[in-house]
Amino acid sequence: MTYRNYNNGIDVTGTDRNCLVRWDPAGRNGRFLTGGGDALCTGKPHGIKIAVENGTEYMYHANVESGVPGKPGALAHNSGKLTKTTMEGEIVWQIQGPFGQAVSSTVSSYRPSWWAVNQPGPYIYLTDGYGSFNIYVFTRDGRFLNRTFGGPGTAHGRFANPHGITFDPRSGELAVTDRGNGRIEFFEVDAENGDRFAYTKTATVAHAALPRGEPAFAPCNFRVLQNASDPALVGFAVVPALEGPVAILDQNNTVVSVVDVAGLIGGRGSKHPHDAIFVGRSGDIAVGTWNLGFVSYWKRL
Q1: Which residues, in sequence order, are CB contacts of 278 under 8 Å at separation 6+?
Q2: pLDDT value, residue 5
Q3: Which residues contact 46 (CB under 8 A, 6 or more apart)?
Q4: Domain residue limits, the chain
Q5: For the domain 37-298, what is the CATH code?
């Protein structure tokens, strides 16, 4: 898990220089990974994805900011920072924004939120969830290809806070969690050609499926279960929503279950699900929440 190192709930300039922690699958033996030191942790660490490349695992990090504004060594408040590390947190490469986006009266910042990295081929995709609302294409060595898709709007292929982006192994498409528009948009790409980003379909969670009558479902991320111990679960997806529920979708993106995280344990601090993953092969999930930041483990029965 990557996190922003608040020290008193407000300030980020205290003594905690960590931003990356790892546990074993049972949620025990947690330890900080500080191989990148300040270079990895300054700014606002946000999204993290694991990729397997030539048999080796790496992590791709997106920091929505580069440093603490006004503090020594800080870069521009809205410049963003992208990093690739080993599984021990050691930096392979790191680049700073801004780049690529068209700065205008409506787009004045570059604040990337998540990577899609598991698709085949040489390209990876970055979503600028808090800045331009664009999708950018990079090579795996961190080179921007000057290819941009999306931008603000409500039409298919346009976004309002494209918070997460994920490779969907079921279809080979990319799934973008378009949080502000309350939907998950899917796009076809060409693994050997980063020029293609074509809209294919949309998935939503109906208000009737939500546990407490929420007015909307604001999805933060989308992750698919593979190699499940029960073959019937292969291709299920978990989708956390910022207002409190976490939805489980089947292979056709139909809702089969909703876990009311905020309703059940919001009183303990887990109020705003920000990311969720399947743990192991059983269908169990771990949920990370934002403000306040907690991690909870949910067992499939």
Answers
A1: 223, 225, 228, 236, 238, 284, 285
A2: 66
A3: 2, 62, 63, 64, 112, 113, 114
A4: 37-298
A5: 2.120.10.30
